[in-house]
Design a protein that fits this description.
Layout (H helix, E strand, L loop, with lengths): L1 H72 L7 E15 L2 E6 L9 E6 L2 E14 L3 H8 L4 H9 L4 H8 E9 L4 E7 L17 H26 L2 E11 L45 H9 L3 E5 L5 E15 L2 E4 L5 E3 L1 H9 L16 H10 L25 E8 L2 H19 L6 E2 L9 E2 H4 L31 E4 L2 E4 L13 H13 L15 E4 L2
Antiparallel strand pairs: 1-4, 2-3, 4-17, 5-6, 5-12, 7-9, 8-9, 10-11, 13-14, 15-16
């Protein structure tokens, strides 16, 4: 009998253990599923946070740029606030604590009940940390106030940006120097419209000075349109030109080294370029003889000795400078000096037949003086810097004695770029909405002047950037096409970045493109977080 009872108890225990193993397996499965679900949620959470932070950063950057443009249109000061490091820590866990037991609640074999419990848990925590840094140090102040480096202009052009947009946004003025054997004249075309007050669509009255400003501004817009036509037709290329610039073009030619020519390891130094020593007085060397050691020592300082034609083929010491310049192509022939001569007649015919330049063509599609003057100015190439190939000018701004035409671009500062982009719209739209259109004087093809609409090509007949879409006076703006890129309210006025439907296909995304270009330029204003003390960094910890 005792053996039978022991057997029954053993069976009961085995059954209870089997139930416990089944419950444990089920709980283990639940734990594994919870961990897998947590892992999948973590990946999705990181992906969602990355997208959200990136979108917030883009929206915030666009908002700040438009806010500064709105401030500048109201002649208020600008402020820059940069987002520093963005960090986020994640903590995710899944738990399933369990307790399983058994108890014999009946004296009948096989009738015992299993007791137990399980309390699964899932926790998630994200702690993002944002750093906001005010940009107010001396380095960035200089970036805002100094002219934009010419290399920036050249790189943007090489990357395919429209040259008329680069002109109108980055160039303050174009200086054209026209010198002859007996006269010299410098014509300046400023990229600033005359300031006019608000109007109700009636005529805008300009004083004599404002008329001169309007003529200069119209000339700049014409030059921008011509430059873009040259770029579009493939007649304008950017090339690097190497030029030897003497340290002193008026110096006495450099004399020979005092050491023998065969001694290449001596320590003697070559005489300076401005030395008054006459090589003939040495009695040991011929005039203009330079030893290998002299050349080697000059090369260590990025200098070289070269024969200069303007100095009577004497050898002078100087530096070879490589500078980019714009040139016209194609070429027609070559002069005996192997200088390429652009085929201006062919180029003129192409531009005269361009419908975007129909305002610059006269009767029978004959090019007017605006085209001839501009092509003459850029025929020998033009650049942003001063022409280093003409040191014989001696610093004279307008030399007389040689028939020559040259052009030079003067760039704005970064804060000047933003201010001009924000403030040009109101004056230009007031001029364009005037009835009748103001007369642009001082045009060679029209002694009596032309209206602003007739003087400016259609492709340039819009502000460099439109941010204010309010109706002012007689200005009737159509609603923007599509959704705006960014918008805000500043001092009761709505500002936004969007595009109007344009009659010129090239200008379909003009506003967005210019805003994108300004954003790329303002990216130069950066901060180094390591140079800022913690007290100057506003940290926002989101719990």
């Amino acid at each position: 009998m005792n053996k039978i009872l022991e057997c029954l108890q053993l069976r009961t225990i085995n059954r209870l253990l089997a139930k416990k193993r089944s419950a444990g397996l089920l709980l283990s499965t639940l734990i594994m599923l919870s961990l897998l679900a947590t892992s999948g949620c973590a990946v999705r959470r990181v992906r969602a946070d990355f997208t959200g932070f990136e979108k917030a950063y883009a929206d915030t950057s666009n908002h700040e740029l438009l806010l500064n443009l709105a401030r500048l249109q109201n002649h208020d000061p600008t402020y820059f606030f940069k987002i520093g490091q963005i960090t986020s820590s994640y903590r995710m866990s899944a738990t399933a604590p369990t307790s399983v037991g058994f108890a014999s609640q009946s004296s009948v074999a096989g009738k015992s009940n299993t007791t137990g419990g399980a309390t699964p848990g899932l926790s998630y925590e994200s702690d993002p940390l944002f750093q906001f840094i005010p940009v107010n140090d001396e380095t960035n102040a200089q970036l805002l106030l100094k002219p934009i480096p010419p290399e920036t202009f050249y790189v943007l052009y090489q990357q395919g940006w429209r040259i008329d947009q680069l002109f109108r946004l980055m160039v303050d003025r174009i200086e054209v120097t026209n010198s002859t054997a007996s006269d010299c004249k410098v014509s300046i075309f400023r990229n600033v419209p005359p300031l006019v007050s608000s109007n109700d669509g009636t005529a805008v009255h300009l004083d004599p000075l404002q008329k001169e400003e309007l003529s200069s501004y119209a000339g700049f817009l014409r030059a921008s349109a011509i430059a873009y036509a040259l770029q579009k037709h493939g007649n304008l290329v950017l090339r690097e030109v190497g030029t030897f610039v003497p340290l002193d073009p008026n110096a006495v030619p450099a004399g020979p080294s005092t050491q023998p020519k065969e001694d290449l390891g001596g320590s003697s130094n070559p005489p300076p370029a401005s030395s008054t020593q006459n090589p003939a007085d040495t009695g040991t060397s011929k005039k203009g003889v330079i030893s290998a050691t002299d050349i080697e020592k000059a090369a260590e300082k990025n200098l070289s000795y070269e024969s200069v034609k303007s100095a009577g083929n004497n050898i002078l010491i100087g530096q070879r400078i490589v500078s980019p310049r714009f040139f016209l192509i194609p070429t027609l022939s070559s002069t005996p000096e192997s200088e390429s001569v652009p085929n201006t007649t062919l180029i003129m015919g192409e531009l005269a037949s361009d419908p975007l330049l129909r305002q610059l063509t006269g009767k029978d599609n004959k090019a007017i003086s605006a085209l001839t003057i501009f092509l003459g100015a850029v025929q020998n190439g033009f650049a942003i810097e001063d022409n280093v190939e003409k040191p014989e000018q001696g610093g004279i701004a307008c030399p007389v004695g040689k028939k020559d035409t040259s052009a030079r671009l003067v760039l704005r500062s970064l804060i000047g770029v933003m201010a001009s982009a924000a403030q040009e719209q109101l004056s230009l739209e007031r001029l364009l909405s005037s009835s009748p259109s103001p007369i642009v004087p001082n045009l060679e093809e029209a002694p009596g002047g032309l209206s602003l609409y007739d003087a400016i090509p259609e492709i340039e007949r819009l502000p460099i950037l439109r941010i204010n879409w309010n109706v002012e006076g007689g200005i009737k703006l159509a609603p923007p096409k599509g959704k705006s890129l960014t918008e805000l309210n500043y001092q009761g006025t709505e500002y936004l970045i969007a595009d109007l439907k344009q009659t010129v296909p090239e200008n379909e995304y003009w506003n967005r493109d210019v805003f994108r270009l300004i954003a790329a330029l303002t990216a130069q204003v950066t901060v180094d977080t390591s140079k800022y003390p913690i007290a100057n960094i506003l940290q926002l910890n989101v719990q």
